[in-house]
Design a protein that fits this description.
509 residues; alpha+beta; OB fold (Dihydrolipoamide Acetyltransferase, E2P); BirA Bifunctional Protein, domain 2; 2 domains; 8-stranded mixed sheet; 5-stranded mixed beta barrel; 18 strands; 34% helix; elongated; metal-binding
Length: 509
Amino acid sequence: MTSANTPAQNTSAEPIDASEQMRIRMEKRAKLIERGTEAYPVGVERTHSLSEIREKYAHLEADETTGDTVGVTGRVVFVRNTGKLCFATLQEGGVDGKGVRLQAMLSLANVGEEALADWKALVDLGDHVFIKGEVISSRRGELSVMADSWSMASKALRPLPVLHAELNEETRVRQRYVDLMVRDEAREMVYRRAAITRSVRDTLDRHGYVEVETPILQLVHGGATARPFETHMNAFDQKMTLRIATELFLKRAVVGGIDRVYDMGRVFRNEGVDSTHSPEFTTLECYEAWADQFVMAERMKEIILNVADVVGTRTIQTDAGEINLDGEWAWISVYPGISEAVGVEITPDTTVDELLAIAAKHEVKVDPKWDAEKMVVELFGEIVEPTLLNPTFVYDYPPSAQPLARPHREDGRLIEAWDLIIGGMERGTAFSELIDPVIQRERLTEQSRRSAAGDEEAMQLDEDFLRALEYGAPPMGGIGLGIDRLVMLFTGAGIRETILFPLLKPEGH
């Protein structure tokens, strides 16, 4: 015969990491089932959420009764079993991520000896339970439900972690469901991210944009310079890639007459993982006919300020200082910007050898095989970009930086493109889009040569995209905005915290 504290031999399948506590809980599950009681019923007679009880009965004074019988559910996060009266704290997620808690009381007089004994023997922290009873305020003024009956709603087989001992960063990210159970901040991140993405959509919708869905599986990868994930489609016996951007299909839509179009969704880049990069992340791309990079700058500013208003602040505190979104959104040209930073004039005519010397002096790692344009972009990114705290549009890039951007209207050695830097980090980018199919073919042909030579980030030649441009695309501006980095800006969290279920190494590796 086994006691409640001694688990019986478990002949059923169990997790390989089952602990002694798990085995005890599994025995309790078995006891519920043996007596014909559901350990995981399909439903219970729930009448109110904990939030509704808190709102409806907030006025109760200490030791006041209502005569109102309700049925509530919640996860048991605290329990105190003392003789003839037991106390439990039930928790639900709430509508905004802030956990809502309510006390349940079980007395011998109300539930009876057998039900009270079962509560003490079978309920553990983490279980979902159903409590039916009267809404009261305890002698200490704690809003409560005095149970007439209780039942198990879902038996938890794993114990909740000890918040400060077992719930380290790795566990929080790897087992996000546990993080969501025990930390309000984790749940609030989910709701805040949803509010941010909703605000972005609302801003675009007000400007007449239409949201579309572009293919994730693609025959030709393009729209950005990045290494793709490769896969194989059995039906076509065809190698395919996961999309690295949504750009080329959105531009096809504009060619077809959808003048303002956007897609917000996952893209995949088979690259490094760090505090600001994830192989799987979310982007917004939007394209507007008859617009240019300056129109898109206004769109971007409006998007971000509207997000700030939803979050509730236009000033952001960082380790590097305060970011003021209400201040001037500055514009800095790449070549004058790097020239001022290093004290040497750098132009599109500056040679690779000169740039190598500047890189060595400022201890910036570069590849000697890079051309001058690549060198300049890297130098700016390493030396200037981290110093740009308040919103700054960095523009007048060299052509190779963005092969899909239009040549500059005044200087053919540059392109019409900008990156928005806030807090020393790129948050988004925009172009006056290249619509000349002849120049675009030249650019993509050069990219395909780089790809053939071993550049895993170079774009491929997309004949169908070029065919679309050859039908005549209207002048247009386009934006690319990293949603994860936008959330990071307004929460101060790293990218793994802003993505609900980030891609991680397998456990044990």
